[in-house]
Write a structure and sequence with these properties.
Layout (H helix, E strand, L loop, with lengths): L1 E2 L4 H8 L7 E2 L4 H8 L16 E5 L6 H10 L3 E5 L3 H5 L5 H21 L9 H14 L4 E2 L4 E4 L20 E6 L1 E3 L2 E2 L2 E6 L7 H20 L6 H14 L11 E3 L6 E5 L12 E4 L2 E4 L3 E4 L2 E5 L4 E3 L9
Parallel strand pairs: 1-2, 3-4
Antiparallel strand pairs: 5-8, 6-7, 7-10, 8-9, 11-12, 13-16, 14-15, 16-17
Bound molecules: glycine and manganese (II) ion (MN) (2 copies).
Glycine binds next to loops.
Amino acid sequence: MLTDFRYLEQAEQELTGSGFALKEHEPEMWKTVGDLLEVGNGFIPRRRYRQELRWGFEGDHLVEKDYRFLSERARGIRLIPREGLLAEMRSIKSPEELMLIKKAVSVTDEAWGRVWPQIKPGLTETEVAALFEYEQRRLGASGASFETIVASGPRSALPHGIAGQRLLQAGDLLVLDGGAVVDGYCSDFTRTIVVGGELREQKQQELYDLVLAAQEATLSGLKPGITGREGDALGRRVIEEAGYGSYFRHGLGHSLGLAIHEEPRLSPRTETVLAQGMVLTVEPGIYLPGWGGIRIEDVVVITESGCEDLTGSEKRLT
Ligand code: GLY
Ligand code: MN
Ligand code: MN
């Protein structure tokens, strides 16, 4: 493990018992990596390796400039890009990881429970996002797992509407999508509510119920042995059959853990087979441009025969 002097002490503590060696890198990290790639530097003794040496790297993360630098240094070593190698290793969570994800999920649930009763006409989206992040931190989060989305009124039709200065009005749909980081692990959560207590129109309730039905169909159908594509279809089918398929264009869900988006996905393009210990979001949505949008997102873990919903917040339209 390479790190710079700022993190040495903490890294040493965290690596205790891990079997990893720790080394401080030079200000230019890739120079240190390049030195380590040189045969005969003590790290790779010359004599012991007669056959070709091969180093794997994450092809979806190393930028071209660093790759060029490394290939010039790494004489006699073949650099082999392996996209998704670590992603795959990370897809099944250990019991310790699962415990931390559950902690992050419950911090988010609790924060939402404190925040939603405070949401009222006249607040800005940014104020709601700030309240939510503040409560998550008070409950032990080190921060937000991504920039909090608060999208209200017609802006709720933006699947990733970053919170802005719009003033909430009674009858608005409000989508809040946020999450916490607790001990390095992420949660991800979305609820849609109506501001000010009164629906503006019955269609809000109808579409909400449709999105909820899509989520519930997914929660009762997810299990080990099906593919990410089949998992996606569990919810997508419900929305398509009601005629709103073209208003639900993102994947139904994704894994998460150390990062907010991990593999595998629940999407029409995912052939990965789901397995016990994978953690996934289930987040169907409907977005009608100019009118508004609805999304409901929970985090689940795949169990021996189905899935367990880790998110506990209320799901009736509030
Ligand atoms: N917060 C981004 C997502 O739900 O995937
Ligand atoms: Mn989310
Ligand atoms: Mn998500």
